[in-house]
Amino acid sequence: MTYPYSVKNYKSFQTSDGLAISGNLYCGKAKIGTVEDQGHGGGSNAHFDTRAANDAFIAWVGTLGEHTITLGSISHTAPHDFESALDLLISEAEAEKERKQLDRAAATKLIFRTAEDGEDQYRTIKLPAALLSRPTTELIAVHPDWFTNIVQVWIIGQGWTKLSAA
Fold this sequence. Notes:
- By secondary structure, this protein is of the alpha+beta class.
- The protein folds into 2 domains: 5-103, no CATH class; 106-162, no CATH class.
- The chain contains 4 helices and 10 strands.
- 13% of the residues are buried.
């Protein structure tokens, strides 16, 4: 989903207490502040450059409606609040960072999932450059036996693509 706000220059690292994050908060192309989570079990924080930017963000949070939180088998629906809106933007930044990493990796490897892999799992095979320069659909046609157990492949610029041949 596209939002007027985004987190850029996103960085994360593991601390002894948990995952710490930092990044810049943008509204469109304008940097309006920073976001952070120190990884000590507390929530994410935003530091705005101006009071107006803070007020506009709070007004935007009010337009987001509800979201569902699931912990184990219990789900709870509630209106978005300041922290859940930040977490939403941080999740988008994490996903964008992963897309970029997979695009870079796909320049030298075939990245794929089998039916046994979960949403957060994938496998890689290093292929010769001559094969990687060929479209995945062409590789499937030339080497269908390679793709027998593969259900999704990562295609640069497109993301995860389901294979109909699987």
